[in-house]
Design goal:
By secondary structure, the protein is of the alpha+beta class. It is built from 5 helices and 5 strands; from the N terminus they run E-H-E-E-E-E-H-H-H-H.
Length: about 130
């Protein structure tokens, strides 16, 4: 079953991709930072901070920003995905590949045939998420 939903929260809620996509520019720890590149998304007026939840192939995938969704799609659309070691080195020397979101993603869903089923659903979610800010 494929399902896309958006939930709203009074404060920004991290997804498994947040640390890897939004690099902290100040503070020693990500959770204490106030400046990020790219910036964290603003709240949707009258609703709060959105969290996109995509349910597909028995898995729920969480996203907190457009940039996170686009990064996920950039990785998943590659027939030969990069390793979590390669991706983690792009972010930081101190964060090992075992902590990377791709390393934590269920291996039975990483095959090209499964990713081809996941990608279009996440793309639909991306459009719904973008529509929140238009």
């Amino acid at each position: 079953m494929k399902k896309i939903r958006i939930e709203f929260y009074p404060e920004f809620k991290m997804s498994p991709l947040s640390f890897w996509v939004h690099k902290n520019l100040d503070g020693e720890a990500w959770i204490y930072a106030t400046k990020f590149e790219p910036e964290l998304p603003p709240p949707v007026p009258g609703k709060g901070y959105p969290m996109l939840i995509v349910s597909v192939l028995g898995m729920e995938i969480f996203f907190s920003s457009v940039e996170e969704i686009e990064h996920f799609l950039d990785v998943f659309q590659q027939k030969n995905m990069p390793t979590s070691l390669k991706l983690s080195k792009l972010r930081s020397e101190n964060s090992g590949p075992n902590q990377h979101w791709l390393s934590r993603f269920p291996s039975h869903l990483k095959s090209w045939s499964k990713r081809q089923k996941i990608i279009p659903v996440v793309q639909q979610g991306l459009q719904k998420f973008k529509d929140l800010y238009n």
